[in-house]
Amino acid sequence: SKLTNLGHLEMTWRSSVRFHPLLVRILHKSRLRYYGKPEKKMDMPYQAYFEVADGSGMMSMVLWNSLCPEWYHSMKVGTVLLLDKYSIKTSYPFKTRPTPGDSQMKRFATIEISLNVRDPPTEISIIPEEMVKPEWGLPEVKYRFITRSELDDLPNNHSCDVIGLVTFVGRAERTRKREKSEDFWLYRWAHAIDGTSDQPFILELFATSQPDVFEHIHPMTYLVCTQMRVMRDLTENPSRTIYLTTSNESQIFITGWHKGQPYTKDAKVKNFIQWTKSQSEADQIKKTVIGGYYPFPRPPESFLKY
């Protein structure tokens, strides 16, 4: 059928009533958001953001309500979609935006694609990777992997991806989303090493929409975290208090989940796998720890400093 592209959509969306089908690749995926309120009677008040791209650039796509439980888990980073009967809306100004792996990619930020169960009912098809043709010009998923030795030079709030061997994982803890709120974020601390530094990555991992991964992070697993943010306590010794925290678009993968993921082709991921082959498993197991309370950043040594 006759296809359109994201660049053409941005130029013509105000004058069009019906849009031609779109062929796009998912580059980023947000966590699932529940926006239900007791006074509003909605069956499935869910929403998820994706960043999708074709040869012309990248745009946000929003999956609404009952389409979320049906499609969210099938729509992975790297998945190619054929979309028809979608609608176009002006972009929501306050949403978070992931940092693209390809800094040259054009970003269409004024509008977003809206996928709904009705008005109109969107038609979604997933194209298997082996059927994707090079002449479609769809961009590859690109990453921003860093090694532990590079972390100390990165600025606060810098976005990056990491891979490491887990040496410590703490218990799940909760923190209030807002003061006096009854809603909580669930998170856990983890350490991961990659052989480039004596220090581990210190990772603050909030539960994303991947409970099956979050609950099974164990020592000695290969852990990949994407779209992490660098956090520095600039008041204290900055190198001592540097850690990484998940963002709204973070994805977490552990051993058993890596097969077929786009990052397996990345050079830094391949270097890490080579390093793990040179390590003695028995030696590494002796250094691993699980559970317990992990106060971080550490409180000062004396009450005066506190």
Summarize the structure.
With 306 residues, this protein is mainly beta.
Question: Care to describe what's here?
Answer:
The protein is mainly β and 306 residues long. It has helices at residues 6-12, 67-71, 148-151, 211-214, 267-277, 281-286, and strands at residues 22-29, 33-34, 46-54, 57-64, 80-84, 87-90, 107-115, 123-127, 159-169, 173-176, 184-193, 201-206, 222-231, 243-246, 252-253, 289-290. It is built from 6 helices and 16 strands. β3 (46-54) and β4 form a beta hairpin. The radius of gyration is 21 Å and the shape is globular. The mean pLDDT is 92.
Summarize the topology:
Blueprint: H1 6-12, E1 22-29, E2 33-34, E3 46-54, E4 57-64, H2 67-71, E5 80-84, E6 87-90, E7 107-115, E8 123-127, H3 148-151, E9 159-169, E10 173-176, E11 184-193, E12 201-206, H4 211-214, E13 222-231, E14 243-246, E15 252-253, H5 267-277, H6 281-286, E16 289-290
Parallel strand pairs: 4-7, 9-16, 12-14
Antiparallel strand pairs: 1-3, 1-5, 2-3, 3-4, 5-8, 6-7, 9-11, 9-13, 10-11, 11-12, 13-14, 13-15
Structural descriptors:
306 residues, mainly beta, OB fold (Dihydrolipoamide Acetyltransferase, E2P), 2 domains, 5-stranded mixed β-barrel, NA-bd_OB-fold, RADX protein, RADX, single-stranded DNA binding
